[in-house]
Each structure stands twice: as structure tokens, then as C-alpha cells.
Amino acid sequence: MKTLVIPPAAQRDENSIQMISGWVAQRGLHCSLNVGMWEAQGHNEAAAWGIMLADVIRHVANAMQETNGADPTETALQIVESLWVEFKDPTSDVQGNFHPGHS
Q: Does residue 15 lie in a domain region?
């Protein structure tokens, strides 16, 4: 099993909250999601996830610039385009159950 490091800022902040973890396992994507946190704070849950996922896309684009020199704007646009293609014509079904709670 290969895991990622916890970002230093999250390690320093005793109030940090993990929102998403994604794994490729058994030939598919498996996720742990912290759904409901924003709604509990009076925010629109779907809109907040959209903002967070847009931030994730920008982080991926910046990481690709640092690792291979890819233009971050072009990379972000390619990712968004790929998202729309996948939504319109999924390459696989989404299966599974949501299990609320924390470890």
C-alpha cells in the first residue's frame, strides 16, 4: 500500500479536517468523503464541494508544472474538459455505499 504524506499545514493545525481520500484498488476508485461538514456549518454542501474540487484541480495543475513544466492554465483546462467528457460518457459505473463517521 502506498500512502501520501499529510501536508505540513494540516499537521500543524489541530483543527485540520480531512475532507477526501481517494484510492485506486481492486481495479477501481475507492473514496472516503467527509460529506455534511459544510452543511452543518450553514453552507451549501454541493457548492462548497465544487469550490474545493476546483482548488484540487489548481493544485494538480501546479504540481504538474513543478514536476514536468506543464502550463498550469492549460493543464487545469484539460482536466475540466476531461471531467465533462467523463460526466457525459462515463468509462465506468460508480458503485458503493456511503458510511458516515470518522475513524
A: no
33: which strand partners?
20
Tell the residue number behind the cell numbers 463517521, with chain if given.
101
pLDDT for 36-60, tens place per residue? 999 999 999 999 999 999 999 999 9
Pick from 47, 51, 19, 16: which is nearest to 33 by CA?
A: 19
Enter the DSSP assignment of 85. H
Cα(63)–Cα(72) distance, rounded to whole angstroms? 8
- Is residue 72 a contact partner of residue 62, using CB atoms and an 8 Å limit? yes
What's the length of the chain? 103
The answer to whether residue 62 is domain-embedded is yes
